[in-house]
Amino acid sequence: MEALTSVDGDLTEEQEQQYLALEAESERLTEELNSLRVADEREARRQRAADIRANATASSRVTTPSSPRIGAIRDSIADDPKRGFKTFAHFAQEVFDAGNTPRSNPSLMRVAAGTGLSQSINNDGGVLVPPAFSTAIWDRVRMKSNSLLQYCDRISVDPGNESVTFPAIAETSRANGSRWGGVQGYWKGELTTLTSSAMKFREVKLTPHELYVFCYVSDKLLRNAPGTASQYLEQSAADEIAFKIGDAIINGDGEGKPLGIIGHDATVSIAKETGQAAASLSYTNISKMWARCHMNWRPGAVWFCNQDIETALREMTMPVGTGGVPVYLPPGGASDSPYSRLFGREVIPIEYCPTLGTVGDIILANLEAYAVGIKGMMNSAYSMHLKFDNAQTCYRIIFELDGQPWLNSAITPFKGSNTLSPIVTLATRS
Asked: What gap in Å lies between CA 112 and CA 103, rounded to an integer?
């Protein structure tokens, strides 16, 4: 801004107007600043008053015994997975004693309080089994070798989802241009252009199916021998669920149940030898099965077989000159294992393999190549209404799972013509 004084020290008329305008603007800004200061002081006083009132109210709540205020009480029963019951038999006895009126039983109502009334005691009088006992049943299933679950690649499915989908490498060959579904490396010459490649994926979808056990226990047994009833229910339910799971992993057709490994496109089946006798097993059969198990999967592979095949295994020899030497190591002794061994891998008899001479009577498999989707834990419930006229109590457990091999076909090797797989079976010999 130019100076407001003229050359001789007096203000010109134009300069006088500028001075008056600046003076008016200064007064306006001063008034505005004062107003802001007053507003700030008013807000500060209001905040101090609110703090004083809040502190006074809090002090009143603490020091005034006549009007206590408690937000919420969480019963410690919710922290007990047994919901206050000593054993599963104890729980079963309480359900039996409650009869048609489970809500009249304080112990069962504590279960309801711990897990939600609408879920623990339903309209039909069913009472959910406390989680500790349901989990005990699930642990038995998981640990039982005949369920085969401990050998599989287990995947949790969120209880809020109907299914789960995974990307899997679409690899069917180890030839150049096919590994990892299409990734290929090249040796680069000077000044040559790079050639691109890419992985190819496919989807693996697991949709858990319901597997249930629905059985009855006599009220007399619950009344006279609750401990026996408890053992019976846990053991029989675990055994049956383990059996159905194992059978589905081996033989399932995928219709409302897991897809089994026998006959699957990813499973390699070894043909019988020319002139081989019906219902027989030879060292050549076993040797060829081992040769078709993909080398990357051999470390975790085991042999599953029908118990009928054990005699043939014990009599099997490897030809050496005009004689032969045993190829099957029985359990203990030289093998130092609870299981027999064949080609250094465990031989595990299971009920689901067909009898000697039928495809699948002996299987070489690494079940890490088999995906199992498990949805939640056991859903267990008790009710005495359905068979009230027969003096029986109903026990029901539901478990959800699905399964299928990770591969959708056998693998063609980089060198050689025989396909390879982590799962190998022996064709029917008849």
From this structure: 9
Q: How far apart are CA 155 and CA 163, in angstroms?
A: 11
Query: Is the C-alpha dihedral spanning 52, 58, 62, 68 positive or negative?
Result: positive
pTM given for the model: 0.65
Q: Left, alpha or beta for 191 (phi > 0: left; psi -120 to 50: alpha)? A: left
Integer Cα distance of 156 and 371 in angstroms:
11
167 neighbors 200 (Cβ within 8 angstroms): no
Helix (H) or strand (E) holding 405: strand 392-405
Residues 6+ apart with CB under 8 A from 288: 270
Q: What are the structure tokens assigned to 336, written together?
A: 């130092």
Give residue-wise pLDDT tens across range 13-70: 788 888 888 888 888 888 877 777 777 777 777 777 666 666 555 444 444 444 444 3
224 touches 123 (CB < 8 A): no
d(CA 3, CA 11): 10
Is residue 377 classed as helix, strand or coil in its secondary structure?
strand
Q: Which of 158-167, 223-232, 322-331 has the highest mean pLDDT?
A: 158-167
Confidence of residue 269 (pLDDT cuts 50, 70, 90): very high
DSSP string spanning 61-130? HHH-TTS--------GGGG-TTTT-SSHHHHHHHHHHHTT-GGG-HHHHHHHHHH-HHHHB-TT--EEPP
